[in-house]
């Protein structure tokens, strides 16, 4: 194994502790909940951006960091947001940054992350989102990863908890791992979020989708329908269970 470069840690980052299509009834319940989503008290939505930073993503990590930065720059321009970066890597390391209110701060946090070999820790991400929501309500979770090496039932339980709280998880999958896709789609279904392919060849599409998620996070389904861009309509289709 090649020698790893020194890791530059952000002193503001803290450790995170913790160990099919929807039915008609599920869809009706989701649409009712989506209509009631409101901006937070300060007029901004709060989105948790969670990243898999294990070694399997090293080949595309530099490109992904650049694309993800552009995605959130697009979000920042379209809708005011507070964003928190959560990532896992190595042997049990899972960290969360402070909330950022501008794209440059978030991009700076992302640029200091290097990939390390390790197993996925998606359960910790979902548990962190639940605990965070209990203290300061969050509008949505965006998760980007390529693998799943955990107990699917545990992840389903964690996702169900977020679904009960009305916190949707939007999963962007890099690659075509079938097991990961099955579980990722289930997480999206249980939280009434959405599953998308993380296509590095289409950064503009990703940026537009993230912009749509920002609109949804701050104004709900009505805001998406009102703006009505192509990506807004695509997101609505996924939220209604029509997306593939």
How would you describe this structure to a colleague?
The structure is a single chain. With 244 residues, this protein is α/β, with parallel strands linked by helices. It has eight helices and seven strands; from the N terminus they run βαβαββααβαβαβαα. It is 49% helix and 16% strand. Helix 2 (58-78) runs parallel beside helix 7 (203-227) and helix 4 packs parallel to helix 5. The protein is globular.
How are the SSEs ordered, and which strands pair?
Layout: E1 14-15, H1 24-35, E2 45-52, H2 58-78, E3 81-89, E4 93-96, H3 103-111, H4 122-135, E5 140-145, H5 152-165, E6 169-173, H6 178-191, E7 194-197, H7 203-227, H8 230-239
Parallel strand pairs: 2-3, 2-5, 5-6, 6-7
Antiparallel strand pairs: 1-4, 3-4
Protein traits:
seven-stranded mixed beta sheet, 244 residues, disordered N terminus, alpha/beta, 8 helices
Helix content: 40-55%
- Count the beta strands: 7
Strand order of the largest sheet: 1-4-3-2-5-6-7
- Termini separation (Å)? 38 Å
């Amino acid at each position: 194994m090649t020698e790893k470069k020194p890791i530059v840690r952000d002193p503001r980052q803290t450790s995170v502790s913790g160990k099919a299509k929807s039915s008609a009834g599920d869809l009706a319940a989701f649409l009712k909940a989506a209509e009631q989503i409101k901006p937070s008290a300060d007029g901004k939505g709060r989105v948790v951006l969670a990243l898999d930073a294990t070694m399997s993503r090293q080949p595309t990590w530099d490109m992904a960091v650049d694309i993800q930065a552009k995605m959130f720059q697009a979000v920042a321009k379209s809708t005011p947001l507070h964003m928190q970066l959560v990532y896992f890597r190595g042997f049990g390391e899972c960290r969360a940054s402070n909330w950022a209110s501008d794209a440059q701060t978030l991009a700076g946090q992302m640029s200091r992350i290097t990939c390390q070999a390790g197993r996925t820790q998606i359960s910790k991400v979902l548990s962190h989102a639940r605990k965070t929501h209990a203290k300061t309500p969050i509008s949505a979770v965006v998760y980007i990863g390529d693998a799943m090496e955990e107990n699917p039932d545990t992840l389903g339980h964690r996702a169900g908890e977020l679904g009960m709280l009305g916190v949707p998880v939007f999963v962007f999958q890099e690659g075509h791992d079938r097991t990961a896709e099955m579980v990722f789609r289930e997480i999206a279904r249980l939280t009434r979020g959405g599953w998308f392919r993380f296509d590095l060849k289409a950064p503009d599409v990703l940026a537009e989708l993230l912009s749509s998620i920002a609109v949804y996070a701050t104004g709900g389904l009505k805001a998406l329908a009102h703006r009505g861009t192509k990506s807004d309509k695509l997101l609505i289709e996924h939220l209604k269970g029509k997306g593939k």
